[in-house]
């Protein structure tokens, strides 16, 4: 999935280096993420900066670049073309009705594709790696839309925390199968920590089968009454229970993956996944993540930004709906959205479904990561634009 999963190169810059110290410190797990030919430990990743005097064609890529003055103007021309040539209306509902099937097909076609060892995770999301340090204590990490395991396996294979539990979830059963068939599943060779993979749709509302049963069904079974009551007692503290209009069903306002209880997760990673949702699904997705996290727990997001190269390369008849800018269908039928910073601000600062007076998250980082890619042969300059978000559950 070359255009969807992007692994920035490791910078070879020596702009910063570690001062040698007298004591020899035991390397942390974070130190072990650095590849032999990667950046020196402690250096800032992506430190190849392009100055006015430099020739952009000197290297293949540059970090933290400023976009040229005419960039947005040119990009908007392409947006106009997309807008006036959307997907055929008759096909639109088909793409939106069973999106997981297109991902299943994707993973069936790429079954042999092994996970990528993403060195940049340590640099962009040190909070994730911190959970795997030997003395981190009990930690629960939830990876949403895990795909082939590009985040969970790099984390697990270097993990030194015996009390780390990683939950890898995806709504594509095929992706979950790929993860489960990896030789590192459910434990890596060193035996520390554990991986649990399951199928879960981040946009779903009620996951437990009991939540769709009628109250009469529930009352027939004492054991179920206990568990539903337990869950109601727990939920009323933080969560709303919504009864439907005829009061027959008890339905939760959220869904969580197998094995995850409300308020139990330390860190959630959602990497190039929210872009696969329809914007009308964002609220439920964020509500589910909010529910899973402990108060103070961290939500880590990385995804496509508006005007990213992948968006500018899209041809006609791919915009799903002219009313919704930035949402497209790829050639393989999978959806992709290109985010603006405000999308995340609005999503995460929305009030909680449980308490309209309370914001769900405090956004601690919301930034654009821009990288210039250079085709030296064709003298072409192309810009990758990703958004990165860190938010703390309030
Ligand atoms: C672009 S891939 C990214 C995979 C992985 N996060 C990575 O970065 O390598 C998007 C993944 O999100 C999953 N996905 C899309 N919509 C989802 C949903 N509603 N619930 C759970 N997973 C979803 C897809 O099945 C796919 O595996």
TrEMBL record:
Residues 1-28 are annotated as: Disordered. It is an enzyme of class 2 (transferase). It comes from the Eukaryota. GO terms for molecular function: tRNA (cytidine-3-)-methyltransferase activity. Signal peptide: none annotated. Coiled coil: none annotated. Keywords: Methyltransferase, Transferase. Residues 1-16 have a biased composition (Polar residues). Its EC number is 2.1.1.-. GO terms for biological process: methylation. Belongs to the methyltransferase superfamily. METL family. S-adenosyl-L-methionine-dependent methyltransferase. This is tRNA N(3)-methylcytidine methyltransferase.
